[in-house]
Design goal:
400 residues, alpha/beta, eight-stranded parallel beta sheet
Length: 400
């Protein structure tokens, strides 16, 4: 189709922030002008100035904003399928660790991989997400735990959008784990903060993340990383309250974080703090499912306080080897009792907030023409299906 044209014969789920639902427009029209949306509304009210533009009849299909996966770890070496098998055969986590498993196995594989190796392994993951209508993918570092490998991961993340029609947003996750034989404070001083400075100097960092948990870093240590991010003018986000409650969510709110992610053990007080800070709560049902967690995030507290909620895959080789954002939507509904409208908002407008992108995630005049066209009529079908991909086409900046 020409770069400027009218799409008709569709239902538009605009995901307008002014509505609690889908912002549905039945029998809608969407006008695309180059890479932007120029108009959306009922087809019967299409302004005269657009009536001579070429038309594309979508034959009753649903159009939504293109999806956004706002939390992934898709650049890494190796996999942990063998550990998965060992655990199912009765091995304990300690036995797996003694056999060289756990995050250390991924760190070892990632350090050993070349940039080309990491790029080659990450591209099929990108392709899988694009095939489900995803236009933006957040990609974290964190499997290097040394300066050069952290930089290598972020360089590869930047290359992904040169190889595929997708937008990549990077997060520096140097504060992911403590390397063997080093204490946390020494690691932050000698590796994490210097790596962040070096990555920022190369233009590789869009945001700074951390893992605030008893098995990783405490709030004081993460605060030091966030203070450095502030001096560099970088926004922050945080893995918080996944396995226990140690104050990560409150810390994220204190720093005005883009998002606090996982949040299974967050409290009503944490929800109030997130709301006051405008921080998005990102729920990650893939990790909840994989590690057999039983405490779900406090969705009702988030609703009561008006906290924006996003949904993501957390695609990683250990705790969430899940490559489907549509499945994450279904799991957020079935495991966390999220509504389908909340799940779609969580992978569109709220996910855009979680990665700091104000130009996408809704269908409105002036927004990027990043759209997903689905072979369904009811938007609830996107969360309803299990292992079903009803994507008809995806537009990135108006291009298929």
């Amino acid at each position: 189709m020409p770069r400027s044209h009218v799409m008709t014969g569709l239902t538009a789920a605009t995901m307008s922030p002014d509505t609690q639902g889908y912002g549905l427009i039945q029998d809608a029209a969407i006008v695309l002008s180059e890479d932007l949306i120029d108009w959306v509304g009922p087809a019967a009210t299409l302004p005269e100035r657009y009536r001579e533009l070429p038309r594309q009849n979508l034959e009753g299909r649903l159009v939504t904003p293109a999806l956004i996966d706002c939390h992934t770890h898709i650049v890494h070496g190796g996999n942990r399928a063998r550990e998965f098998e060992m655990r199912l055969n009765g091995a304990s986590y300690e036995e797996v660790a003694r056999a060289g498993g756990g995050i250390i196995s991924t760190v070892t594989a990632t350090r050993a991989a070349t940039e080309n190796d990491l790029l080659s392994s990450a591209l099929p993951r990108v392709d899988a997400l694009i095939a489900e209508g995803v236009s933006v993918i957040e990609v974290k570092s964190g499997y290097g735990l040394d300066i050069e490998t952290e930089l290598k991961m972020l360089r590869v993340a930047r290359k992904l959008e040169q190889q595929r029609p997708v937008r990549i947003v990077t997060s520096f996750l140097g504060a992911h784990a403590v390397p063997t034989g080093m204490d946390a404070d020494t690691y932050i001083d000698t590796i994490c903060l210097p790596a962040l400075e070096a990555a920022h100097a190369e233009g590789l960092v869009d945001a700074v993340d951390g893992f605030c948990e008893g098995i990783a870093f405490d709030t004081a240590q993460i605060a030091r990383v966030f203070d450095k991010a502030r001096t560099l003018g970088l926004p922050v986000k945080l893995h918080a309250e996944q396995l226990s409650h140690i104050g990560g969510t409150a810390l994220a709110a204190q720093y005005g974080a883009l998002s606090a992610d996982h949040v299974e053990y967050a409290t009503a007080e944490d929800a109030a703090a997130l709301a006051a800070a405008g921080t998005v709560a990102v729920v990650l049902p893939g990790a909840f499912y994989t590690i057999h967690e039983t405490q779900a995030p406090p969705l009702q507290a988030f609703r009561d306080q008006g906290v924006a909620m996003a949904v993501a895959t957390d695609w990683n080789p250990g705790s969430s080897p899940m490559g489907s954002l549509l499945l994450a939507m279904n799991m957020a509904c079935t495991l966390f009792r999220m509504t389908p409208a909340e799940a779609l908002a969580g992978t569109t407008r709220n996910a855009a907030r979680a990665v700091g992108l104000p130009d996408c995630g809704v269908i409105a005049k002036g927004m990027r023409a990043d759209l997903a066209i689905w072979n369904v009529r009811d938007p609830a079908e996107l969360s309803y299906g299990i292992g079903i991909n009803p994507l008809h086409a995806r537009l990135l900046g108006g291009k298929t």
